[in-house]
Design brief:
By secondary structure, the protein is of the alpha+beta class. It is built from 24 helices and eight strands. It has a six-stranded antiparallel beta sheet with strand order 4-3-5-6-7-8. The chain has a two-stranded antiparallel ribbon with strand order 1-2. The mean pLDDT is 94.
């Protein structure tokens, strides 16, 4: 790959364009297996620089605290409890502004590289309330001046907390600086809850399942706060490990490592596959990485939690830091980079600096127990009923088992979207054409198809496209990943199909008035952990659902990325 120029597949455009979608995906998938997305080195350096700026920003905010001094005297203050509190709130703010997960070209954001704050401070953009029929005052999908004011107030309140000083000595924690005022934590949490009930997108973008949950622990006194935060970290690790007990995860590993800038040699990347170039299912190396990583996430956190110092704590901390560094240096799609930096910081502050604090030090175990039951219960429910719970609170991070969608859009519908949706960014295809030119834009678009197809669900999605579009009319549609639609319409996306399901379809239909057949959507739910199937639905934006059924995971994992012949088991309805 070049320093400034992307390393894209070289094909005979005239011949390649004559092929079926499956035939055109095949060279893209092979290229992905050897190169990944072909990201220029400069872009990887850009993301590395963004991580450095994130660290620097947190550093300076911490130094604004009375009693914490010395830019280079990190050893004197890094383990102060208020430092951890501020890093949590700072990272929450970093994410909810749009600078963290989902930022930039590696998340299909080109012009501009973020949405979030550019959308959520703008009236008439789309919002998606989680329970509009159950929670009063949350109906509707249009952002009002009240929503804008709530979001702005949240940014201001969080900033005030970041610049606050500690409340004074807490001997139990060995600090003279103290902790953040409780009223500030309560105000931030209360406002985020209100915003989340009006718009689930903002709550998810804030990574509320991590940072808001940790902020809840700041309401606990003394050692209870540290122990509760440790519990949250353990649930995150073990919850994520539980969700990876599936057949999908090795496909994620092979796809991610192909895109890693650390593994540069093509010969090494080929080893992640069964038999390059003809069999691009995950090979033995991918399975070793996948099962080894799952074992680390499942087995090492309890050691870290219960060891309370000494060699076991040191070894467990090193292993988990190495685990997060592996993800971080792979620069995965969706770019959850700062989250991995934060998790490493949490290992050091909570489990190393405060290794001596454990369950025996709790003054009031009940709130900690309730918190554990709630967050662990959400993880369990998220794995049992993935259609009901986002993969973020369900802790199904990078498990390969996500709700996904493909949107089949006619040019007339794309024009309606451009006119009818209040958005900052243009439709994804228009962004690609602006960057690559009209003809060459097909290459990165099909590289996006290849990425989706390298994961198990891609085989089912492209099979179901044939059922969603009337026979012989596929050339009339542009196939667009729901993530890209979500990016344009909502201002944030991060692999969560809950954000571009029927709720978004209805919101866009209300604004764009699509004709029957103009927009057809394939919706594929994640696999419940206790079943071997994934449910699907085919929806026409104008007329509603017209088919549903299931596909078997066992049929998906045996096929190649360019396959579009997964057996479909229809429960209701017929193809278009």
């Amino acid at each position: 790959m070049g320093f400034l120029k992307p390393d894209l597949p070289v094909v005979d455009m005239a011949e390649w364009s004559k092929g079926t979608r499956s035939e055109r995906i095949r060279p893209m998938a092979r290229h992905w297996a050897e190169v990944g997305f072909g990201t220029p080195v400069a872009l990887h350096l850009f993301y590395a620089g963004k991580v450095c700026l994130y660290v620097l920003g947190g550093w300076l905010i911490v130094l604004s605290t009375k009693g914490i001094d010395g830019f280079t005297d990190v050893g004197d203050w890094w383990s102060e409890p208020i430092v951890f509190q501020k890093v949590v709130l700072y990272t929450l703010l970093f994410e909810v502004v749009g600078l963290g997960c989902g930022f930039g070209p590696l998340n299909n954001r080109f012009f501009p590289p973020l949405g979030s704050i550019l959308y959520w401070l703008r009236p008439k953009t789309i919002r998606l309330p989680p329970w509009p029929d159950r929670v009063p005052l949350t109906r509707g999908t249009t952002r009002t001046p009240v929503d804008v004011a709530l979001y702005a107030a949240f940014l201001v309140l969080t900033s005030i907390a970041l610049l606050a000083d500690g409340t004074g000595p807490v001997p139990e924690l060995g600090t003279t600086v103290g902790l953040l005022p409780l009223w500030q934590i309560a105000a931030v949490l209360g406002l985020l809850a209100v915003i989340g009930l009006r718009d689930k997108v903002i709550f998810l973008a804030a990574r509320g399942e991590v940072y808001a949950t940790l902020a809840v622990t700041f309401l606990f006194a003394g050692a209870d706060m540290i122990v509760a935060a440790k519990v949250v970290f353990v649930v995150i690790w073990m919850g994520a490990a539980t969700s990876k007990l599936n057949k999908h995860f090795p496909f994620v590993v092979s796809t991610m490592m192909s895109n890693s800038p650390v593994f540069r040699r093509k010969s090494l990347k080929r080893k992640f596959f069964e038999n390059f170039p003809d069999d691009l299912r995950p090979g033995r190396l991918s399975r070793i990485f996948a099962h080894g990583g799952t074992a680390v996430e499942m087995c090492v956190p309890p050691v870290l939690f219960f060891s309370h110092g000494g060699l076991p704590t040191t070894i467990a901390a090193i292993v988990l830091i190495g685990f997060h560094l592996t993800i971080l240096t792979a620069i995965p799609m969706g770019v959850p980079l700062e989250w991995n930096v934060f998790m490493i910081f949490g290992v050091l502050v909570l489990f190393v600096a405060h290794a001596d604090l454990g369950l025996a030090d709790l003054h009031n175990p009940l709130p900690v127990a309730v918190l554990f039951v709630v967050i662990a219960g959400i993880v369990i429910a998220g794995n049992l009923f993935p259609r009901k719970i986002s993969f973020l609170p369900g802790m199904r991070y990078y498990a390969g088992n996500w709700d996904t969608t493909l949107w089949c859009i006619k040019p007339s519908a794309a024009a309606k979207i451009s006119r009818g949706i209040v958005a900052i960014a243009a439709m994804p295809q228009a962004q690609l054409e602006r960057f690559y030119g009209k003809d060459r834009a097909q290459i990165p678009m099909f590289m996006g198809y290849a990425f989706r197809a390298m994961n198990t669900h891609g085989r089912a999605l492209f099979t179901l496209v044939h059922r969603a579009i009337p026979p012989g009319r596929e050339d009339e549609y542009t196939i667009t990943d729901g993530e890209r639609i979500c990016s344009t319409a909502l201002g944030w996306n991060f692999g969560d199909g809950h954000l571009h399901n029927e709720q978004l379809i209805a919101a866009m239909q209300q604004r764009c008035r699509f004709e029957p057949g103009e927009v057809r959507v394939v919706l594929l739910d994640a696999q419940p952990i206790h079943k071997g199937t994934q449910e699907y639905r085919l929806v026409d934006a104008a007329t509603g659902e017209f088919e549903r059924g299931v596909v078997y995971v066992a049929d998906m994992v045996t096929r190649q990325p360019w396959a579009d012949d997964v057996p479909v088991h229809v429960h209701r309805g017929e193809p278009a």
